[in-house]
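job 3f2a | input accepted
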Amino acid sequence: MPVLIDLHSHILPGVDDGARTLDESIEIARSAVEDGVELVAATPHVRDDYRTSAETMEELVRSTQAAVRTAGIPLELRTGGEIALDLLPGLDAEEVRRFGLGGNPRYVLLEFPYEGWPLSLENVVVALRAEGVTPVIAHPERNPGVQAAPERLAPIVSAGALVQLTAGSVTGAGGSQPRRASRALFDLGLAHLVAGDAHAARVRKARMREAVAAIGDEALARWLTNDVPRAVVDDEPLPERPSSRPRRFRLRRN
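job 3f2a | predicted structure (254 res):
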Protein backbone atom coordinates (compact mmCIF):
# COMPACT_ATOMS: atom_id res chain seq x y z
CA MET A 1 0.00 0.00 0.00
CA PRO A 2 1.57 3.33 -1.02
CA VAL A 3 1.61 6.31 1.30
CA LEU A 4 -1.40 8.35 0.20
CA ILE A 5 -1.61 12.06 -0.50
CA ASP A 6 -5.10 13.55 -0.67
CA LEU A 7 -5.37 16.87 -2.50
CA HIS A 8 -9.08 17.51 -1.93
CA SER A 9 -10.70 17.80 1.48
CA HIS A 10 -13.32 19.90 3.23
CA ILE A 11 -11.59 19.53 6.58
CA LEU A 12 -11.60 23.19 7.64
CA PRO A 13 -14.30 23.98 10.21
CA GLY A 14 -17.28 26.22 9.59
CA VAL A 15 -16.56 27.55 6.10
CA ASP A 16 -18.56 25.28 3.78
CA ASP A 17 -20.55 22.04 3.72
CA GLY A 18 -17.69 20.05 5.24
CA ALA A 19 -16.58 20.03 8.87
CA ARG A 20 -18.85 22.18 11.02
CA THR A 21 -16.63 22.34 14.10
CA LEU A 22 -12.98 21.89 14.98
CA ASP A 23 -13.87 18.59 16.65
CA GLU A 24 -15.25 17.36 13.34
CA SER A 25 -12.07 18.54 11.59
CA ILE A 26 -10.02 16.46 14.01
CA GLU A 27 -12.22 13.42 13.33
CA ILE A 28 -11.71 13.85 9.58
CA ALA A 29 -7.96 14.06 10.18
CA ARG A 30 -8.01 10.91 12.31
CA SER A 31 -10.05 9.08 9.66
CA ALA A 32 -7.57 10.17 6.96
CA VAL A 33 -4.61 8.75 8.86
CA GLU A 34 -6.50 5.50 9.45
CA ASP A 35 -7.01 5.42 5.67
CA GLY A 36 -3.25 5.61 5.04
CA VAL A 37 -3.09 9.33 4.20
CA GLU A 38 -0.12 11.38 5.39
CA LEU A 39 -0.86 14.74 3.74
CA VAL A 40 -4.15 16.51 3.00
CA ALA A 41 -4.81 19.71 1.09
CA ALA A 42 -7.58 21.70 2.73
CA THR A 43 -9.70 22.82 -0.21
CA PRO A 44 -12.77 24.74 1.00
CA HIS A 45 -15.36 25.74 -1.56
CA VAL A 46 -14.86 29.13 -3.18
CA ARG A 47 -18.20 29.82 -4.83
CA ASP A 48 -21.37 31.88 -4.49
CA ASP A 49 -22.78 29.99 -1.51
CA TYR A 50 -19.43 29.73 0.28
CA ARG A 51 -17.30 32.77 -0.45
CA THR A 52 -14.23 31.65 1.42
CA SER A 53 -11.35 34.11 1.17
CA ALA A 54 -7.73 33.07 0.88
CA GLU A 55 -6.98 34.82 4.16
CA THR A 56 -9.69 32.87 6.00
CA MET A 57 -8.49 29.61 4.46
CA GLU A 58 -4.88 30.28 5.47
CA GLU A 59 -5.83 31.18 9.05
CA LEU A 60 -7.96 28.04 9.40
CA VAL A 61 -5.24 25.81 8.00
CA ARG A 62 -2.86 27.13 10.66
CA SER A 63 -5.31 26.70 13.54
CA THR A 64 -6.59 23.32 12.34
CA GLN A 65 -3.06 21.99 11.85
CA ALA A 66 -2.19 23.07 15.39
CA ALA A 67 -5.27 21.29 16.77
CA VAL A 68 -4.51 18.14 14.79
CA ARG A 69 -0.96 18.07 16.17
CA THR A 70 -2.20 18.66 19.70
CA ALA A 71 -4.50 15.66 19.24
CA GLY A 72 -1.46 13.57 18.34
CA ILE A 73 -2.58 12.89 14.77
CA PRO A 74 0.35 12.61 12.29
CA LEU A 75 -1.31 14.41 9.39
CA GLU A 76 0.17 17.32 7.47
CA LEU A 77 -2.27 19.97 6.24
CA ARG A 78 -1.56 22.12 3.22
CA THR A 79 -3.43 25.09 1.83
CA GLY A 80 -5.75 25.07 -1.17
CA GLY A 81 -9.24 25.86 -2.38
CA GLU A 82 -11.91 24.43 -4.68
CA ILE A 83 -12.80 27.32 -6.93
CA ALA A 84 -16.02 27.43 -8.92
CA LEU A 85 -15.54 28.24 -12.60
CA ASP A 86 -18.05 31.07 -12.53
CA LEU A 87 -16.33 32.71 -9.56
CA LEU A 88 -12.81 32.48 -10.96
CA PRO A 89 -13.01 35.65 -13.11
CA GLY A 90 -13.82 37.69 -10.00
CA LEU A 91 -10.60 36.69 -8.25
CA ASP A 92 -7.37 38.54 -8.87
CA ALA A 93 -4.25 36.58 -9.81
CA GLU A 94 -2.72 36.86 -6.34
CA GLU A 95 -5.85 35.48 -4.66
CA VAL A 96 -5.91 32.55 -7.08
CA ARG A 97 -2.28 31.76 -6.34
CA ARG A 98 -2.91 31.88 -2.59
CA PHE A 99 -5.47 29.14 -3.18
CA GLY A 100 -2.73 27.09 -4.87
CA LEU A 101 -3.31 23.37 -4.48
CA GLY A 102 -1.25 21.81 -1.72
CA GLY A 103 0.42 25.16 -1.16
CA ASN A 104 1.79 25.26 -4.71
CA PRO A 105 0.73 28.49 -6.47
CA ARG A 106 1.34 26.86 -9.85
CA TYR A 107 -1.68 24.55 -9.46
CA VAL A 108 -5.30 25.40 -8.72
CA LEU A 109 -8.29 23.11 -8.09
CA LEU A 110 -11.37 24.00 -10.14
CA GLU A 111 -14.81 22.58 -9.41
CA PHE A 112 -16.41 20.91 -12.42
CA PRO A 113 -20.18 21.57 -12.34
CA TYR A 114 -22.55 18.74 -11.50
CA GLU A 115 -24.90 19.64 -14.36
CA GLY A 116 -24.28 21.06 -17.83
CA TRP A 117 -21.08 21.44 -19.80
CA PRO A 118 -18.93 24.52 -19.00
CA LEU A 119 -18.44 26.01 -22.45
CA SER A 120 -15.70 28.34 -21.26
CA LEU A 121 -13.59 25.63 -19.65
CA GLU A 122 -11.06 25.17 -22.43
CA ASN A 123 -10.51 28.93 -22.62
CA VAL A 124 -10.06 29.06 -18.84
CA VAL A 125 -7.48 26.29 -19.02
CA VAL A 126 -5.57 28.03 -21.80
CA ALA A 127 -5.60 31.36 -19.94
CA LEU A 128 -4.37 29.81 -16.70
CA ARG A 129 -1.63 27.89 -18.46
CA ALA A 130 -0.48 31.12 -20.10
CA GLU A 131 -0.03 32.50 -16.58
CA GLY A 132 1.99 29.48 -15.51
CA VAL A 133 -0.85 27.88 -13.55
CA THR A 134 -2.04 24.31 -14.13
CA PRO A 135 -5.75 23.79 -13.45
CA VAL A 136 -6.79 20.56 -11.76
CA ILE A 137 -10.38 19.68 -12.64
CA ALA A 138 -12.25 18.22 -9.67
CA HIS A 139 -14.72 15.30 -9.98
CA PRO A 140 -15.86 15.63 -13.63
CA GLU A 141 -16.98 11.99 -13.49
CA ARG A 142 -20.04 13.08 -11.50
CA ASN A 143 -21.33 15.16 -14.41
CA PRO A 144 -23.88 13.46 -16.73
CA GLY A 145 -22.21 14.97 -19.79
CA VAL A 146 -18.91 13.36 -18.90
CA GLN A 147 -20.63 10.11 -18.00
CA ALA A 148 -22.22 10.04 -21.45
CA ALA A 149 -19.01 10.92 -23.32
CA PRO A 150 -15.84 10.80 -21.19
CA GLU A 151 -13.72 11.55 -24.26
CA ARG A 152 -15.06 15.13 -24.21
CA LEU A 153 -12.41 15.84 -21.58
CA ALA A 154 -9.59 15.08 -24.03
CA PRO A 155 -9.31 18.67 -25.40
CA ILE A 156 -9.26 20.00 -21.83
CA VAL A 157 -6.38 17.70 -20.92
CA SER A 158 -4.61 18.51 -24.20
CA ALA A 159 -4.89 22.19 -23.30
CA GLY A 160 -2.92 21.51 -20.12
CA ALA A 161 -5.38 20.56 -17.37
CA LEU A 162 -5.12 17.65 -14.97
CA VAL A 163 -8.16 15.62 -13.97
CA GLN A 164 -8.84 14.62 -10.36
CA LEU A 165 -11.36 11.86 -9.68
CA THR A 166 -13.09 11.31 -6.35
CA ALA A 167 -12.22 8.12 -4.49
CA GLY A 168 -15.89 7.41 -3.78
CA SER A 169 -16.59 7.48 -7.51
CA VAL A 170 -13.80 5.00 -8.17
CA THR A 171 -15.09 2.59 -5.53
CA GLY A 172 -18.73 2.86 -6.56
CA ALA A 173 -19.80 4.52 -3.32
CA GLY A 174 -21.06 7.43 -5.41
CA GLY A 175 -23.11 5.22 -7.71
CA SER A 176 -22.58 3.14 -10.81
CA GLN A 177 -22.49 6.02 -13.30
CA PRO A 178 -19.59 7.90 -11.67
CA ARG A 179 -17.80 4.59 -11.26
CA ARG A 180 -18.25 3.72 -14.92
CA ALA A 181 -17.08 7.18 -15.97
CA SER A 182 -14.03 6.91 -13.71
CA ARG A 183 -13.10 3.61 -15.29
CA ALA A 184 -13.46 5.08 -18.77
CA LEU A 185 -11.27 8.05 -17.87
CA PHE A 186 -8.60 5.67 -16.55
CA ASP A 187 -8.70 3.69 -19.77
CA LEU A 188 -8.57 6.83 -21.91
CA GLY A 189 -5.57 8.18 -19.98
CA LEU A 190 -7.60 11.23 -18.92
CA ALA A 191 -7.24 10.90 -15.13
CA HIS A 192 -4.21 12.09 -13.18
CA LEU A 193 -5.15 12.10 -9.49
CA VAL A 194 -7.56 10.41 -7.12
CA ALA A 195 -8.60 12.38 -4.02
CA GLY A 196 -10.97 11.91 -1.11
CA ASP A 197 -13.19 15.02 -1.20
CA ALA A 198 -14.04 14.20 2.43
CA HIS A 199 -16.79 16.26 4.04
CA ALA A 200 -17.04 14.16 7.19
CA ALA A 201 -15.21 11.39 9.02
CA ARG A 202 -17.76 8.65 8.30
CA VAL A 203 -20.69 9.17 5.92
CA ARG A 204 -18.82 11.33 3.38
CA LYS A 205 -15.35 10.03 4.18
CA ALA A 206 -12.42 9.92 1.80
CA ARG A 207 -12.25 6.17 0.94
CA MET A 208 -8.71 6.51 -0.41
CA ARG A 209 -7.57 3.02 0.61
CA GLU A 210 -10.69 1.50 -0.97
CA ALA A 211 -10.00 3.42 -4.18
CA VAL A 212 -6.45 2.06 -4.38
CA ALA A 213 -7.85 -1.47 -4.19
CA ALA A 214 -10.60 -0.71 -6.73
CA ILE A 215 -8.16 0.64 -9.32
CA GLY A 216 -6.78 -2.86 -9.66
CA ASP A 217 -3.31 -1.84 -10.84
CA GLU A 218 -0.64 -1.20 -8.21
CA ALA A 219 1.57 1.04 -10.35
CA LEU A 220 -1.33 3.14 -11.60
CA ALA A 221 -2.79 3.45 -8.11
CA ARG A 222 0.54 4.69 -6.77
CA TRP A 223 0.81 7.21 -9.61
CA LEU A 224 -2.69 8.58 -8.96
CA THR A 225 -2.53 8.73 -5.17
CA ASN A 226 1.13 9.38 -4.44
CA ASP A 227 3.42 10.13 -7.38
CA VAL A 228 1.40 12.86 -9.09
CA PRO A 229 0.07 14.56 -5.94
CA ARG A 230 3.57 14.46 -4.43
CA ALA A 231 4.97 16.15 -7.53
CA VAL A 232 2.28 18.85 -7.23
CA VAL A 233 3.04 19.47 -3.55
CA ASP A 234 6.82 19.46 -4.06
CA ASP A 235 6.66 21.45 -7.32
CA GLU A 236 8.52 18.75 -9.20
CA PRO A 237 8.00 17.60 -12.81
CA LEU A 238 5.03 15.28 -13.14
CA PRO A 239 6.06 11.63 -13.46
CA GLU A 240 5.08 9.70 -16.54
CA ARG A 241 1.98 7.57 -16.35
CA PRO A 242 2.75 3.86 -15.90
CA SER A 243 2.48 1.85 -19.08
CA SER A 244 0.32 -0.78 -17.41
CA ARG A 245 -3.44 -0.33 -17.46
CA PRO A 246 -6.11 -1.07 -14.87
CA ARG A 247 -8.15 -4.21 -15.23
CA ARG A 248 -11.50 -3.98 -16.92
CA PHE A 249 -14.56 -5.51 -15.34
CA ARG A 250 -18.26 -5.62 -16.01
CA LEU A 251 -20.43 -3.18 -14.08
CA ARG A 252 -24.01 -3.87 -13.12
CA ARG A 253 -26.54 -1.77 -14.96
CA ASN A 254 -29.18 0.06 -12.94
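job 3f2a | Residues 4-234 form a domain with the TIM Barrel fold (CATH 3.20.20.140).
job 3f2a | closed
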